[in-house]
Specification:
By secondary structure, the protein is mainly α. The chain has 2 domains: 5-52, 434 Repressor (Amino-terminal Domain) (Orthogonal Bundle); 57-102. It contains 8 helices and no strands.
C-alpha cells in the first residue's frame, strides 16, 4: 500500500501508528488501513500535532480553491506550495472525480486561515 507522505508525517509526529490510533480512539487496524488521513480526523490531528490542516490533506484544500475558481498558480500562492505540487494534487482530485470515488470531498474539511509561513 502506498501511503500518502502527509500521513507518514502525521504518524511520525505521533511516534507510530498505534499512538495515532489511541489519540483518535481507533483500532490499530483502522489506522494501518489508511492510505490518506480521512477528512473527519483532520481537525483532531491538527490540534494534536500543530500541523496546519492543509499539510495533512493538501489535496482537499487544492480542490476547495479550485472550486472557488483559482488557477494552479493562485492555489500555489495561497497554500505556499509549488505550482507543480498544486497541479499534482489537482490531478489526484480530478482522477477521484472521474473514477466516481471522490468521497473525500472538500466539503468535509474544516475551514482554516491561510497557512503559516514555514518555521512559524
Amino acid at each position: 500500500m502506498d501511503r500518502d507522505p502527509a500521513l507518514m508525517e502525521v504518524i511520525r509526529r505521533f511516534g507510530n501508528a498505534a499512538a495515532l490510533a489511541r489519540q483518535l480512539g481507533l483500532s490499530n487496524q483502522a489506522v494501518s488501513g489508511w492510505e490518506m488521513v480521512p477528512p473527519k480526523y483532520i481537525r483532531a490531528i491538527s490540534q494534536a500535532t500543530g500541523m496546519h490542516p492543509y499539510r495533512i490533506r493538501p489535496d482537499l484544500y487544492v480542490e476547495g480553491f479550485w472550486n472557488m475558481g483559482l488557477d494552479t498558480v493562485e492555489i500555489a500562492e495561497e497554500m505556499r506550495i509549488s505550482e507543480a505540487d498544486a497541479e499534482r494534487y489537482l490531478h489526484m482530485v480530478l482522477a477521484r472525480r472521474k473514477a466516481g470515488t471522490n468521497d473525500n470531498a472538500c466539503s468535509a474539511i474544516p475551514p482554516v486561515s491561510k497557512p503559516p509561513l514555514e518555521g512559524q
